[in-house]
Structures are given as C-alpha cells and as structure tokens.
C-alpha cells in the first residue's frame, strides 16, 4: 500500500446529492452516516457537502429535469478518483415516476442516474436501508484505494 | 416585535443559496437581500423536484393511486396514504373497523414522533450543537425500528389500505409490549434531553427572539400546524377528527413564535404523542383490521383534511369507474413557505438558515403546485 492509498483509506468523504426523490432515501443515508446507531465514521467514512473534498458521490432520486445540470456540475467538480453510488430504486431505474404512462417516459424525469453520469455501485431498495448503503460505499473502497 | 415590514426599495446585496446547498438537504433556491448583514427580504423558489404525482395518479385505479401517494414524501408517507384512503372511504361510505382506526392513529403518532425528532435533530445541527443532534438521532432510531416492526419497512410502510389496515400491520401481544417498553425508554430519553436543553443558557440566548413570526402575521399567511401553534394559536385538526374521538390529549401552544418556541413546541408535542400511543395500546379493541365488504361506485369530488406532523394535509379526488379523477393534494409546507420568508426578515444572515429550518420545511412534498398564468 502506497502512502497515497494509506492516507486515502483514513478519510473517505461521501457527498450526497438529492435529485428529486421522496426524501426517504435521503434521510436514511444521512442517518447512516450521521446517526450513532449505524455510524459510518467508525470505518473512516465521513459526510461532506463540498464536492472538491468528496471521493464518493451518493445520488438519490430520479433526476428531475431541473436537477440535471446541477448534478453534472457537481460531478465535474469532484477531483479524480471519483466513484458514484446510485441509491434507491428511483436512482436505479426512475422508480414510480419514470415509466408512469406505460412505455412513454415522463417528461419531468431525466434519470436513471446512469444516463447522466457513470455509476460504479447500485444500492436497491425503496427506501434504501442504511446497512445497504454502508455496504455499497464500503464495496467501492478497494477500487478507490488502488486508483492513482 | 409586532410588525416586520418588507422593504420595497432596491436592495443591492443579494446572497443566493441553492439549489443544492449543504445546510438544506432538499433542493430549493432562496435569495436573501441583505443590508449590513441584516436580511431585509427573502424569496424562496421551489419547483426543482417537480415530478407530477397528481398527473401520474390521474386515471389510475384507486388502490394503486393510494399506494402512489406514499411516494410524495418520505418523512410523512403514512399521513399521505392515510388521508388518501380516508378520501375514498368518505366518498364510498366504507366503515372502518375500530381496531384499524386505533392502528392508524398509532402509526400516525409514531410518525409524528419520528418527524419531530428529525426536526429537533436537524434544528440542533443547524445550531451547530452536534451532541444534542446525535442524541436525538439515537432516540429516533427507537421509533424507526418500531415503525419497521409494524409496517415492515423503515420508510414507506404502506399501512393503510381501503377499508382498514393491511393484515401484516396487525399488532399481537408481543408487539404491543415492545411498543409499550420502547415508549417508556423514549419518554425517559426525551425528558433528559428537554431538561438539558432548557438548562443550557448559551443555547437559550442563541435562539430566543430569533426568527420571530408574530401571531397576526401567522394567521394572515395561513400558516398551519406546529408553526402556527408556536405563535399561540390553539388550532389542531386532531380535535375534530373522528379517529381521535376516544383519545385524550392536550393541544400544546407556545407564546413567542421564535426558534425557541418552535423547538420547545415539538418537544412537548412529542410527549403528547407518547401519551396517545400509550392510550392506543392500552385500549386497543379486538376484532378484524380490514373491512372488505364494500362496493365501488362513481363519486363526486370528495375532500379530506387531516393533521399531519407539519400541519394540515388536504387530499381530494373524484372516482369514476374505480379510477381517480381530478386529484388535488395540498401539503402543509406550501402554506408555511410564507412563514419561512417572513421569519428571516430583520435577522442576521447567519441566522437565516435557522429561521427557515424553524418552520420545518419539506419541499419534496410541496413541489406539486402549478401556477396558471392568464395571458
């Protein structure tokens, strides 16, 4: 383990972007990082709100029309190496909002997240469980640590 | 302070926040117009996460539409499905079994607890008091696990269905005992928190007199829920709902309408919720939880109002061959946006986020309004 990945392993910063879901996943994820019950900080995973500091971007929600540009801007602002976790069924496939008219997709929804930015890990569930989100973020750590 | 008049002349400095901002979880945009670090005018713009739930609901079978209303909001999801079922039940004249009524009230109050705890934790976090925030988040997990036990999921439990509650949400002796024990633990934890919170003189001086919303202005802006009651108006829709007929509880009010009043308001209301849950598990009647003996027919537009954690929730739709038509949903945060804008005026820019958070914003459920402009 080089000195870079050694120090990186001690400060994984997760940023959460919320792109128009129902707030359920959002609060569950903030809980998993913040709340003392699930306490991600014991694995040296911290929550940040600054994209320039972040390593992992967690995206929830089906990406509404007006949220597309902010999401792209945030993804651009994160320094390399960066990895994206799509959490919740809205982020994975648009949820109940995407294909609401059968085969005709909704005009409001730009998602799933894969269409807009590359996704490295997918966490299913409606709403996601904090344990699953933790597992998703932790599964990315080897990729993140081996990157240059 | 009685009157805070928004200034009409041009203010040069504007501080925009959003749409994605660290202090606010949800995407919304707010513009503060400041002079000497004092906010003179605030403007909140929503519409970023408009998904068009009402349009999706239009033409769906009523059972499916009920399940969809839960996806409006992840915090008060049970309230939405409850009120949506209630609308159809009022229109079709469906009798609900007594036991189902009690379980609905129990779920509603558990949800109020988790919403108020989230409010308190978020408020303490914006106040930069991490310790209090963490303690409340830890207590909130007790409620979340109870909700998961009854409904099967931590968020979006889908408890209410047409004619009662899902058979899975029926409560047996073991579950009732666990709720009873957890309520004792919760009351102890909350009492400890409130005592320490009120005894903290630094925190009290930080929140007293900040973000004042006068009573007259609150009534003028049609503010609902705990935000209204924190200005001294004893208006609670639970006193008029038939589900709460058998229950005994107090409507809590606070005098000032500032951040302190709002925070204490939620804490005291949580005690009332614990009281209500104890009454529900003590007096829960025997019998079935769902009434499947009803017929579908066309109805006119039916309206239903209930009290949810944030205020008054309104659902209305008509039924046509078992399908939902002309659906309108009005969430409490819609009314409270005016209060948020008003509360910021006259305070330091550093307190502005606190003034918005004190009104318990939930923009996710609010983003459904369409403004029709005649040209």
Number of separate strands of chain A: 5
What is the helix/strand order of chain A?
HEHEEHEHHEHH
Radius of gyration of chain B: 21 Å
Strand order of the largest sheet of chain B: 1-2-3
Oligomer: heterodimer
* C-alpha Rg of chain A (nearest Å): 15 Å
How much helicity do the residues of chain B have?
Answer: 40-55%
Principal-axis shape of chain A: globular
Q: How can the largest sheet of chain A be summarized?
A: 5 strands, parallel
Mind describing the biggest β-sheet of chain B?
Answer: 3 strands, antiparallel
Summarize the amount of helix of chain A as a percent range: 25-40%
Distance between the termini of chain A: 12 Å
Number of helices of chain B: 13
How does the SSE layout of this entry go?
The complex is a heterodimer of chains A (148) and B (375).
Chain A: H1 3-8, E1 12-18, H2 24-34, E2 45-48, E3 56-60, H3 68-77, E4 83-87, H4 89-93, H5 95-98, E5 121-123, H6 130-139, H7 141-146
Parallel strand pairs in A: 1-2, 1-3, 3-4, 4-5
Helix pairs in contact in A: 2-6
Chain B: E1 13-17, E2 29-35, E3 38-45, H1 53-57, H2 62-69, H3 77-92, H4 98-126, H5 130-151, E4 160-161, E5 164-165, H6 173-199, H7 201-207, H8 215-220, H9 226-229, H10 259-283, E6 299-308, E7 311-320, E8 323-330, H11 332-344, H12 352-357, H13 363-366
Antiparallel strand pairs in B: 1-2, 2-3, 4-5, 6-7, 7-8
Helix pairs in contact in B: 2-3, 4-5, 4-10, 5-6, 6-10
Can you walk me through this structure?
The complex is a heterodimer of chains A (148) and B (375). Chain A contains 7 helices and 5 strands; from the N terminus they run αβαββαβααβαα. Chain A has helices at residues 3-8, 24-34, 68-77, 89-93, 95-98, 130-139, 141-146, and strands at residues 12-18, 45-48, 56-60, 83-87, 121-123. In chain A, strands 2-1-3-4-5 form a 5-stranded parallel beta sheet. In chain A, α3 links the parallel β3 and β4. In chain A, α2 crosses α6 (130-139). The relative contact order of chain A is 0.21. The model of chain A has no long low-confidence stretch (mean pLDDT 84). With 375 residues, chain B is of the alpha+beta class. Chain B has 13 helices and 8 strands. In chain B, the strands form 3 sheets. Chain B has a 3-stranded antiparallel beta sheet with strand order 1-2-3. In chain B, strands 6-7-8 form a 3-stranded antiparallel beta sheet. In chain B, β7 (311-320) and β8 form a beta hairpin. The longest helix of chain B is centred in the N-terminal third of the chain and has 29 residues, at 98-126. The chains are: A alpha/beta (148), B alpha+beta (375). At the A-B interface, α2 and α5 of A face α1 and α5 of B.
């Amino acid at each position: 383990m080089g000195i870079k990945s050694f120090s990186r392993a001690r400060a994984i910063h997760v940023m959460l972007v919320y792109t128009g879901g129902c707030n359920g996943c959002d609060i569950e994820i903030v809980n998993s990082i913040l709340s003392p019950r699930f306490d991600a900080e014991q694995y040296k995973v911290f929550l940040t709100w600054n994209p320039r500091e972040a390593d992992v971007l967690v995206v929830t929600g089906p990406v509404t029309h007006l949220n597309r540009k902010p999401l792209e801007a945030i993804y651009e602002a994160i320094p390399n190496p960066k990895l994206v976790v799509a959490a919740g069924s809205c982020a994975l496939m648009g949820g109940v909002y995407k294909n609401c008219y059968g085969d005709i997709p909704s005009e409001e929804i730009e998602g799933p997240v894969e269409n807009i930015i590359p996704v490295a890990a997918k966490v299913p569930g409606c709403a996601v469980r904090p344990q699953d989100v933790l597992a998703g973020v932790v599964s990315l750590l080897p990729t993140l640590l081996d990157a240059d | 302070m009685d009157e805070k008049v928004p200034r009409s002349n041009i203010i040069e400095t504007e501080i925009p926040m959003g749409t994605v901002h660290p202090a606010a979880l949800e995407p919304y945009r707010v513009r503060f117009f400041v002079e000497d670090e004092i906010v003179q005018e605030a403007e909140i713009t929503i519409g970023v996460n408009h998904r068009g739930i009402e349009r999706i609901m239009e033409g769906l079978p009523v059972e499916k539409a009920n399940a969809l209303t839960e996806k409006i909001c992840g915090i008060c999801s049970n309230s939405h499905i409850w009120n949506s079922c209630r609308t159809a039940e009022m229109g079709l004249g469906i009798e609900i079994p007594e036991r189902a009524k009690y379980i609905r009230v129990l779920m509603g109050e558990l949800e109020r607890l988790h919403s108020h705890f989230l409010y308190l934790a978020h408020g303490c976090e914006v106040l930069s008091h991490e310790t209090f925030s963490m303690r409340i988040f830890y207590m909130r997990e007790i409620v979340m696990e109870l909700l998961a036990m009854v409904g099967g999921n931590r968020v979006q439990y889908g408890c209410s269905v047409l004619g009662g509650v899902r058979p899975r949400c029926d409560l047996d002796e073991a579950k009732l005992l666990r709720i009873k024990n957890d309520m004792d633990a919760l009351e102890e934890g909350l009492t400890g928190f409130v005592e320490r919170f009120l005894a903290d003189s630094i925190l009290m001086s930080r929140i007293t007199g900040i973000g004042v919303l006068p009573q007259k202005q609150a009534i003028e802006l049609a503010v609902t829920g705990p935000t209204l009651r924190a200005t001294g108006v004893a208006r609670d829709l639970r006193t008029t709902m038939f589900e709460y007929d058998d229950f005994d509880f107090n409507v809590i009010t606070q005098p000032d309408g500032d951040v302190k009043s709002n925070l204490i308001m939620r804490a005291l209301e949580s005690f009332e919720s614990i009281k209500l849950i104890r009454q529900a598990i003590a007096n829960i009647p025997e019998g079935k939880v769902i009434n499947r003996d009803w017929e579908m027919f066309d109805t006119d537009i039916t309206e239903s109002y209930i009290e949810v954690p944030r205020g008054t929730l309104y659902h209305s739709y008509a039924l046509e061959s078992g399908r939902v038509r002309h659906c309108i949903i009005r969430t409490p945060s819609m009314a409270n946006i005016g209060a948020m804008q008003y509360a910021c005026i006259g305070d330091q820019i550093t307190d502005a986020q606190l003034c918005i958070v004190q009104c318990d914003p939930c923009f996710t459920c609010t983003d459904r309004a369409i403004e029709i402009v005649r040209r």
